[in-house]
UniProtKB/TrEMBL annotation:
<dbReference type="InterPro" id="IPR047610">
    <property type="entry name" value="ImuA_translesion"/>
</dbReference>
<protein>
    <submittedName>
        <fullName>Translesion DNA synthesis-associated protein ImuA</fullName>
    </submittedName>
</protein>
<dbReference type="InterPro" id="IPR027417">
    <property type="entry name" value="P-loop_NTPase"/>
</dbReference>
<dbReference type="InterPro" id="IPR017166">
    <property type="entry name" value="UCP037290"/>
</dbReference>
Amino acid sequence: MRTVSAAAVRDAAGVAAAFPHVWRANQLGSYRTATVPTGHATLDRELPDGGWPASVLIELLTQQPGIGEMRLLQPALRQAGSRAIALVQPPYPPQAAAWAAEGFPVQRLVWVKSRRTVDALWAAEQSLRNRSCVALVLWQPQVRHEALRRLHLAAQGGDATVWLVRPLAAAQEASPAPLRLALRPAAAGIRIDIVKRRGPRRDAPLIVPLENMPAADFHSFEPHHASVAQRPSAVVTARNAAAVLV
């Protein structure tokens, strides 16, 4: 049986320490960026550096919107401090009363609404490049690889935590995002399959309990609910008058 010398082990450890994109196959890697705890211990234990990495693109792949993805992100968003949280092209209007009830100052929420995918992507890129938000959530049913690459590069140029919510079927597609999670509903929580991470493959899903709050509280079909107040944005309307920041 072949043995590995102590010197070889030290050399491997030195390489892993010197190059952030290199890690041992049986260990979690590192992003070498700031990390925000997810607020869910079960998930933190399975993520490099123990949380959501900033300055990279994170993908959340869902069966359908509203299965608990916002409740999953809620503890991290609570740590945003005084800077803005951008919600770009969410499937339903954000409900100001629900966000306020959870302790989020509504004036910090920025809702980007666009008729065209290209404008939503552009607005997200500009928000990241201008460092105008500390957290950004973007919903897109279809995204080309080139757009993914641009988003990842824009994220790398700033310090925001960036989540892209896409359909579950996109798990079969290549992506520059270093962290990709597939989300499915589960009893009293959410099931998470780790599609991609810097570290060993994990086949068994995670079951993460979520706070006892209906998912529709953050987004709603009902037009009579109070939505985040409209605020015109020179950044987005300069690109296309049909794109409105509210």
